[in-house]
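Annex B.
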Amino acid sequence: MAAPASGGRGRARSCETAEQTREWMEAIASFLGRHRPLLEAHVVNFFKDRLWEMVDADWMECLRREPVESLLMLPSGCVQDHWPSSLQEFILTARSLVLPREQKSPQSFLPNSRVASIGTVLAQGMNSKKKHEIEALSGIVDAIARSRGAKTVVDVGSGQGYLAQALSFEYQLAVIAIDASSHHASVTNTRAERIKKHYAAKCVEKQQFKVPRTVTCHVLSSDTLAAVTLDACQDDHGEHITETNNCNQSIPQIEQPNHSIPQLVLAGLHACGDLSVNMLRVFVSCEQVQALVSVGCCYNLLSEDTDTCPGFPISKAAKSSKLVLGKSIRDLACQSAERWRNLTKEMALQNFDIHAFRAAFQMVLEKYFPEVSRLSPSIGRQGKALRRQRLRKVMESHLAMGKADDLSYPNCKEQHMNTDGSLPTEPTAPKGAVECCSNELCTAVVGSSISRVNVGPSDTNLDECCKFTLFKDFTISGLGRLGCGFVEDVNLLEIWKDVQHFTEFIGPFWCLRAALGPLVETYILLDRLLFLQEQGSAVEASLFPLFDPAMSPRNMALVAWKLTGDPLEPSHGNASHA
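Methyltransferase domain-containing protein: predicted structure tokens.
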């Protein structure tokens, strides 16, 4: 029977105070320290470094026999009664240290908030995920702006302006949209004018609709963000500020209040990497900024181990702990337990296969291209998407060629016959594809070069041959992206046979490592919360699960405000408790 880690092992955690947050972070750091090798393991080296051997042998023996469905629930803290007690302890302890991610209604956090449903005009161009995020976030931002008496919102990392336009037209707030892309600014302006006409047409009384004002700037520091924000607010009468590249201007003296600048709220929906952290620093240092609502993402892009203003860590306590994550571990923080458990069995197996292909591909690089392997090459997300698409087509092709009563696998000659039964005289496969001209040799078309790759005989069974063919296709595509040239006698079959027996450990290993991902994200989020709590009693801050984590995995909103007027009254029972 599966047992979810509802409360986990040990006492319940809270981050209502700075001391509680520090204790929580210390517990996480201690747990991560005990499992550092698993954290630092990179799946591309799975076969090369025999990574499954770093995990308790009883764990791996148990998990390799488990159905895929049980593995997919592991990162969510679900264990089976028959699992080794040490494995159950690992999973349940990890889960007990994670921030609760189940979505809560904005009203449970701020009773005076309202969530307006976005109509078809405002929602044009949004997918269901984006619409879900914009509706929830804009309601929270509006409630906090009204509570703080702020009339202007600065949307940091505004993209195509979806949040800015919802705040402008649904909540009648003045909005300044800052983004690094001039194209995004142009799209925002054009789209906003179209929406403005729609709202004006359906408005009975004469009403002035102000579209968001756009600022184009590549924000590299909190000083830059503060300067651009305050400069954009100096003149509150303009409709647009477009193509404003003012990042190199002198930084205003933000320590001195400028009463011509309105009270501001900083908002950011998935502001990337250090941008979310720079928002926190501007909130603390700039008197005009009264509140902050930030949903971060892209932890792998955070700066770390820099002398000045790193993206991680930022709290004094985290800096003194000396816990170093590194890019690979921060990338793990982007894993979503909710999405893992919602994968179908087929999707999960495909993901495990692709991890196996990438690890086996590394063995090809080690043996035949050692100078490339030493550079730790990245094949890239575009290449991954291309390979996923091509591998799916290859599999569909193999299944289509099989008959219900005959599951024999077609040989290379049959796969590449012309419709008249003859073999092609010229390579006809697209760039990067495989063109077989005999049973022993394939011609891999990589750019303008042609490589002869030894694929061995095709006398294996259907499943083994399908997997090997997919691996071969993956490898040739990867070599093409890395610009590897002509190579004689690359024996892919030999490499695949060497690793094939160990592919069954890929799924269990990856799921165990993925179980640590939410823990790493929790530590990063608590570091940001603690940074605000360290400012003293003048700042109130909370973490709140604003979105459905299955739809939007980065769903934790960091909400903060300055206690300069009437205190904002959030409801009890928010995400400060675990």
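Residues 1-8, 237-257, 403-460 have pLDDT under 50 and may be disordered. Residues 159 and 184 are 6 Å apart (CA to CA). Further annotation is deferred to the next reporting cycle.
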